[in-house]
């Protein structure tokens, strides 16, 4: 049965791969985006997840087009990397507001419809950095770690209504963000990854699609690392 799926930040990178994975199996897929174009075959809604008004409007448009959201993937995120002593309050707060509070806003809004349906899947995209930490990324790591506690609390609150809430924690992935790294930096990163390669965006998307499937109906409050072994022990 075709479901209404919403992927935030879904017009490039990991978000786009996730959106395409759901579309390929016949789901009705909507994405939110802040800039750029809407990929062909997807329903796009411009939305800044730091704005409660934007989130409400976006959900209204998606519901009018596809019906109540049955699968939410909270993927929208930003980075503002710098060392702690150079990090401004604005740098810290902006990353938390997009990555963590933004996920709260969309999950809260999606859960209203899911509770009425008595079913639903919420998947939050975190990062290995949220589990292991990373120098120069205190704001990003804090935002991604916060998703774990948030997801587990949501899982306990609404699990009895047939709604699961899980976290996917990717490691280094082949995207436009990693393409700009120098060869030396890429080699340095790969030394830390037991599988000795980056993930493809499709590998992240496959795990997300699994968590939204019937096969994963008894998985909730879980953190699934897709990091080639980089975060083992954390």
Automatic annotation (TrEMBL):
<keyword id="KW-0275">Fatty acid biosynthesis</keyword>
<dbReference type="InterPro" id="IPR036291">
    <property type="entry name" value="NAD(P)-bd_dom_sf"/>
</dbReference>
<dbReference type="InterPro" id="IPR002347">
    <property type="entry name" value="SDR_fam"/>
</dbReference>
<comment type="pathway">
    <text>Lipid metabolism; fatty acid biosynthesis.</text>
</comment>
<dbReference type="InterPro" id="IPR011284">
    <property type="entry name" value="3oxo_ACP_reduc"/>
</dbReference>
<dbReference type="Pfam" id="PF13561">
    <property type="entry name" value="adh_short_C2"/>
</dbReference>
<keyword id="KW-0521">NADP</keyword>
<comment type="subunit">
    <text>Homotetramer.</text>
</comment>
<dbReference type="InterPro" id="IPR050259">
    <property type="entry name" value="SDR"/>
</dbReference>
<dbReference type="InterPro" id="IPR057326">
    <property type="entry name" value="KR_dom"/>
</dbReference>
<keyword id="KW-0560">Oxidoreductase</keyword>
<comment type="similarity">
    <text>Belongs to the short-chain dehydrogenases/reductases (SDR) family.</text>
</comment>
<feature type="domain" description="Ketoreductase">
    <location>
        <begin position="3"/>
        <end position="176"/>
    </location>
</feature>
<comment type="function">
    <text>Catalyzes the NADPH-dependent reduction of beta-ketoacyl-ACP substrates to beta-hydroxyacyl-ACP products, the first reductive step in the elongation cycle of fatty acid biosynthesis.</text>
</comment>
<dbReference type="InterPro" id="IPR020904">
    <property type="entry name" value="Sc_DH/Rdtase_CS"/>
</dbReference>
<keyword id="KW-0443">Lipid metabolism</keyword>
<keyword id="KW-0276">Fatty acid metabolism</keyword>
<protein>
    <recommendedName>
        <fullName>3-oxoacyl-[acyl-carrier-protein] reductase</fullName>
        <ecNumber>1.1.1.100</ecNumber>
    </recommendedName>
</protein>
<keyword id="KW-0444">Lipid biosynthesis</keyword>
